[in-house]
Design goal:
Number of domains: 2
CATH class of the largest domain: Mainly Alpha
Number of strands: 12
Oligomer: single chain
Distance between the termini: 57 Å
Strand order of the largest sheet: 1-2-3-5-4
């Protein structure tokens, strides 16, 4: 029996040379502070895969956390880690390739990338409102599964959203910082984009739980359903905006207590369009 060149191998001495032997590396994604390097590889049978390798201690911790998360959470919108390969003193993880563009790429010009004419976020925001709402509802549904698995969102932002404009489908990627919750923040802050983060994510000793995920999702809705970064052109209903405002109250006790209740309120407000 011929073993799959990625799913059937348990250890390689070095990732990139091995990928070059079993296929063609057509994309390389730099570290960008994540501690990982990733490759898009096309195998000899034409199938495309995404392989991510840790290159420092931070990357090793991230991949370990991500592997545990993907063992606990499965959803069709979340691109899964399906196999891992030992390499040197760490791991590389194998994921199916998904077509699309990340809505925000920090290396492409910082915050200007969000408003760049012709860029992914600008094109996404120009889609009909119904399509944007469908994409956000899929993100929301994925986070209902995340919550049901006892996990909380960490470092979720528009750079973790991969949108396939041809198929009209959104995929969630790079969720390696998601972790079981609730937990107490032991550092000065959590990783992430300030645009999406709750106040408690910057307070050592704060409790991070489902209400934190609610805040993040509320900020995602506000960001995706606006015509620009100034947040002055809301495209949803007044009822949906009220739901977002409650979801993003500074004090956790003033928000929806969990993603389930946030989703119920959001969908009820949408039904009233």
């Amino acid at each position: 029996m011929v073993l799959h060149p990625l799913l059937g191998v348990d250890e390689v001495p070095a990732v990139e040379p091995y990928l070059g032997r079993v296929g063609e590396v057509f994309r390389v994604f730099g570290e960008r502070g994540s501690g990982c390097v990733a490759y898009g590889v096309r195998l000899l049978d034409g199938a495309r895969w995404f392989v991510k390798e840790a290159v420092n201690e931070h990357g090793h911790r991230s991949l370990e956390r991500g592997w545990a998360f993907h063992r606990a959470v499965r959803h069709t919108a979340i691109v899964p880690q399906v196999h891992r390969i030992a390499v040197r003193d760490g791991w590389a993880v194998v994921m199916p390739w998904r077509s699309g563009e990340v809505l925000y790429h920090p290396a492409a010009g910082g915050s200007r990338d969000r408003t760049r004419p012709g860029g992914p976020m600008a094109r996404f925001r120009s889609l009909p409102t119904a399509e944007v709402l469908r994409a956000f509802d899929r993100v929301l549904d994925a986070h209902l599964t995340v919550e049901a698995a006892g996990q909380v969102a960490v470092d979720f932002y528009d750079g973790t959203l991969l949108y396939d404009f041809a198929a009209g489908a959104v995929h969630l990627v790079d969720l390696d910082e998601y972790r079981p919750g609730p937990f107490v923040l032991e550092d000065e802050r959590l990783p992430g984009s300030r645009r999406f983060m709750s106040p408690e994510e910057f307070v050592r000793g704060a409790v991070i739980d489902s209400r934190t995920t609610v805040f993040t999702l509320g900020r995602a809705a506000r960001h995706l359903l606006d015509a620009g970064d100034e947040e002055r052109a809301w495209r949803g209903t007044a009822g949906q905006l009220a739901v977002v405002e409650r979801a993003t109250f500074p004090a956790p006790d003033d928000r929806f207590t969990d993603v389930h209740r946030f989703a119920e309120a959001w969908r009820a407000a949408g039904a009233a369009r």
